[in-house]
Design a protein that fits this description.
Length: about 375
Amino acid sequence: MFAPDGQKIGAVRTAAACALLLTAWLVAACETPAPSKFPPSASDLGLLKAAKLCDHKASVLGRLAGMPVRREVWGTGEELRIPADRSATGSEESLFFDQDDQLVGLLFVFPSGVSLKPYPVLRETLSQLKPSLEFYLNIAQVSARESLDPSTLYETGDATSTVRYLVLNGDPLTLLAASFSIDPYAKLLSPYRAEFLSRIERGGKTQGGSKPSGKGSTDREAFAALQQFARGETAHFGSCGAKDDTRAADAYGKAIAVGFSDKVWQAEAYHKLGLALERSGKLEPAKQAILKALAIRPNTAEFLNSLGSVYAKLGDHEQAVATFERAVALRPNYTVARFNLAEAYEQVNVKRAIAEYETYLALVEGIEEEQSRVAKAQERVQYLKKR
């Protein structure tokens, strides 16, 4: 039986449409999603019920009204503690605020552990993460365990925050603690810090204690210095919103005043103080701070690059060129310093400026993050060649 012409046309159109849809579906199904820049972090545990990072203390206290919250000093900030029997998560909750009343960290400790068997999403996430640390703990309150238990720390997060899960190994895994922190404060909520371990360990210490593996397992830097440095970094990077150079400079200065035992920390604190002062327009104090960083670690390319930028803003182009040249001599592939050197050369030697821009362009070819500087370098090369 033959269909009328109208029916034929309709059938052809329908078939074509179906074919088009099938093709589109196949293409979509076969496309490979772009890889994430961050590790897997999905969780079905749902711990962030009372607050989230960067919340202001006043708003958190409003949500916790009527709960038995214990308030304690936490360095220059404050900690709010919620007992496990009153917590919505069934854990001992600690909320850490900096001196500016921003929530910078949360810690959830499960006194008897919690089985992750009912949480397939989190289990799958952990299975995709490489252990950050393996060590032993006294966990007397976790039933059917020896006094020294093998534990594993997993770490994940996103662009501005760090999430850690501490679990007892076994089948199923048992969650002992979880922490959420703004990146700069992650060091303070770490098993390398005695303050962190003391919240998790249970039972007597006579049969051993925490034994993190690897060199340098104990961080002995002063808590107050690290806390102020983290405050400075949070303001420097704008982890909780807008960048605040005044606050950053205040925090780095206080970290320096407390003091670091390690020269790397000392030098970096002075360097970051210099950057904050530079962005605030305080160029002479910025120069002095970076020179102090270089006095501690003389051949550090990053410090030299920062100092060169200050000299350029001060109008001392010869010193800027000399300083950038030292930076690229120490690290020839240091692209930012190479670009800065090209800019500085424009004031004293056009031919060298062109050569440095072209060297920079060769170094960053194909690097997406450099595209804005690449466009400027290309424009400057064209302009300078016409002069």
